[in-house]
Design a protein that fits this description.
Blueprint: H1 3-25, H2 32-50, H3 56-67, H4 72-78, H5 81-85, E1 96-98, E2 115-122, E3 127-133, E4 137-144, E5 147-158, E6 166-177, E7 182-185, E8 192-197, E9 202-209, E10 227-229, E11 242-245, H6 249-256
Antiparallel strand pairs: 1-2, 2-9, 3-8, 3-10, 4-7, 4-9, 5-6, 5-8, 6-11
Bound molecules: fe (ii) ion.
Residues 131, 133, 138, 193 line the site of fe (ii) ion.
């Protein structure tokens, strides 16, 4: 082997070794550019909502398209999913949460409402207990496991000091959802949701904005998390509506996550 060929041969061996190392670490599967673009699109979408450029339903449609257009493996790696969730042990049937962060080079300036990105995880039988939201939008992308997801449109609040407050709900979705499926909500569409994990270590990746401009004034006030817990298990009436009693967190946990 000539000196030149020998050098080329050793060089190619080194390249092969480097390639193998990269493959093992999964680095080659990463597409940092496209995920940076995804993150920037997410921030831009949230800015557009808070500055009134798009409607609530636009936000739901667009985040649905954006977040279901990403490779889940790449998204989990980009958001450091394994590290953030590996210590979760799920001692109860309530969700545990962890907040990933977008890279600092993503421009998040000018988003005029508080917003968050968050992993929700639970064990089999665990639940995101049924609730409605006041003046908030959120999306829940299934990124691991499986859920039975139900959503409802919130038709009208019915305050009643004597018999207890209720909310009229119209069932919307009732589906088994695996990785890649998404649920979104706003004041306008599918304001209420209820998710039950059907596999251990089931996770959603959520995006939410709170204190959204109050286009819709609700009769019933929400808690500090913009939530009102409800029991949507009653029978539908002749109009396809469910009269859902407003319940406390403790009542909801006892009934839906005990
Ligand atoms: Fe929610």
């Amino acid at each position: 082997m000539t000196q030149l060929n020998r050098r080329a041969f050793i060089g190619s061996l080194a390249l092969t070794a480097a390639f193998a190392a990269v493959t093992r670490s999964g680095a080659l599967a990463q597409t940092p550019k496209s995920l940076d673009q995804w993150a920037q699109d997410l921030a831009d979408l949230n800015r557009d909502l808070t500055t009134g450029k798009i409607t609530l339903v636009d936000w739901q449609d667009r985040i649905g398209a954006l977040n279901t257009g990403v490779e889940l493996e790449d998204l989990r790696r980009y958001l450091d999913f394994d590290r953030l969730t590996k210590a979760m042990t799920f001692p109860t049937k309530l969700a545990e949460t962890a907040d990933p962060h977008l890279p600092t080079h993503i421009n998040v300036d000018g988003i005029e409402r508080p917003w968050f990105i968050r992993f929700f995880g639970m064990k089999k039988g665990g639940a995101i207990i049924p609730h409605v939201h006041n003046n908030m939008v959120s999306s829940h992308l299934i990124i691991d496991g499986q859920f039975h997801a139900r959503t409802f449109d919130r038709m009208v609040d019915l305050p009643d000091d004597a018999r207890g407050d209720t909310i009229l709900l119209r069932p919307a979705r009732d589906e088994t959802m695996g990785p890649g499926a998404i649920v979104t909500m706003s004041d306008e569409r599918e304001n209420s949701h209820w998710l039950i994990a059907e596999a251990d270590r089931s996770f959603t990746f959520d995006v939410g904005l709170v204190d959204i401009a109050k286009d819709r004034a609700y009769t019933l006030p929400a808690n500090k998390y913009n939530m009102i817990f409800v029991d949507p298990t009653g029978e539908e009436d002749g109009y396809g509506l469910i009269t859902a009693p407003v319940i406390t967190f403790e009542e909801a946990t006892t009934k839906f996550a005990a």
